[in-house]
Design a protein that fits this description.
- This protein has about 200 residues and is of the alpha+beta class.
- It folds into 2 domains: about 70 residues; about 110 residues, Rieske [2Fe-2S] iron-sulphur domain (Rieske Iron-sulfur Protein), CATH 2.102.10.
- Helices cover about 35% and strands about 25% of the residues.
- It contains 3 helices and 10 strands.
- A hairpin with a 6-residue loop joins strand 6 and strand 7.
- The chain starts with a helix and ends in a 16-residue tail after the last strand.
- The relative contact order is 0.11.
- Bound molecules: FE2/S2 (inorganic) cluster.
- The site of FE2/S2 (inorganic) cluster (FES) has 10 residues, from loops.
- FE2/S2 (inorganic) cluster (FES) binds next to loops.
Length: about 200
Amino acid sequence: MVQRIGNEVNMAVDIITPVNHMKKVIDKMPNSDLKKEMKKTKEGTSRRSFFSILWIGLGIVAFIELIGVVTAFLLPRKKSVKAGDYATIIDAGPVDKFPKESVTAFIRGKFYLCRLEDGGFLAVSRKCTHLGCTVPWSDKDKKFVCPCHASAFDIKGEVISPPAPRALDVYHLYIENNIVKVDIGKRIKRSGFRTDQVVYVKKA
Ligand code: FES
């Protein structure tokens, strides 16, 4: 009788605390659907928070990039180098360094300094006027011969053999204190050679 009363009291306690009771029931059912559902909910929550963090991170990166683009647009641009600026002038060297009927290559300036037989100077572009290949000077043949389609030019840059349609371009050149200076910022197109393109040392 006493034991029966004790059992009934225990049951009453279980009914009063339903949460504890449910937990016990779930724990006693190791692979129950309810347990699986609870696990899924947990995983779903952690996946959602992972994607939230990812989206926030991407948003921050996009914002930083946007600031970079806006700043680059608003800041004043670097001044471009113009013809006649110090940066475009090349000191080729003293006049006497260049013998008559010689061609000297200037790799940095992409031109040849040609000294003609009368002592005059021409700064001739090394770019072929056909399709832009670099034309090397042949000391043996005394002419420029394009390796691409065989156009040929004389020491003044005049076309000897087509398909080049016109003479090689020239650069502005001047002589200051007996030093030959070439302005590579000023390339001049020409249809052919003219004597006024040649620069001479001024007689004192
Ligand atoms: S590019 Fe020089 S001949 Fe064609």
